[in-house]
Amino acid sequence: MGIYALLTRAVMHKQALSSKAQAGAWHGLFCAQAAFIMVLVLVTGLDSRSGVSIIGGISKGQAILASVAMSVAFLWGLFSSLDEKKTVESVLKDDLEWADTIFSSILLAVVVMYFLVQAFKIPSGSMRDTLLEGDHLFVNKAIYGMKVPLAGKRMLKFRDVKRGDIVVFTFPSENPAEQHCGGSQYGKDFIKRMMGMPGDTIEFREGALFINGKQAENEVYAKYSDPVRIPGPERKSIGEQEYQQLWESRNLGRAYGESIRDTFGPVKVPPNSYFAVGDNRDHSCDSRFWGPVPEKSIKGRAMFIYWPPGRMVGVR
To answer: Are residues 69 and 204 both part of a single domain?
Structure first.
């Protein structure tokens, strides 16, 4: 849209479009861009984690719908500009004003979403009953420091991650072929409660969380929906160091499966990393199965639910 605005200025300055047909085609191009952006924002905002992803979460169905809207808008723009009351200059002037407005709005939205606030939708029941499937919430991306593009560093940090924070992070895997939680989670956003800080020793005994040898207190948010505790794995053939390495390399879940749900650890959280666990302890694919969360993967802290209206509340 920004490039379109620059080209329109150049076209107007050189008076390159002399006929209404040419101006109509140019106007149609503007309408197509605007329709593509609005429809794509609408359909992705309403929801879509279904379908085959083509660009960071945009499904083929969403792309097709946006493309159809773009084609229809182009034709509408082409024929609407042929109105006798409109001149070539008036058509281009209107397009330029709208292009500048849309470009500025999108640029502002991108800056806000990258550095400050991001909308997020709860995809599963791993955080029940704190967060429910379909809840939409805002994530504070500035609280742990704003990420510097391409540098891998943060600036203007307000505070560090604290025990009990509900945090959104990118799944900690750099290999798209890795299989966790029933499939490849590469590049996906997860939301969990950070219960293990760097250097903490974490253990689960019959489903109960132990931190540095003591049972975690005041876990009013923890939910146990399965009345049966799963027996722990047989570990006679594996030492603590090998167990730790399996966990840090995200292979512990592959080695032991569901048997580590209720009997896990002890493991030590590595430096600059955290132990993430879902509030729905019996139905959460979390750090027990796929290892620690590096600080670099963290996006921000959940702030409040904004949709549905009946669940508007701060997240704690």
So the answer is: no
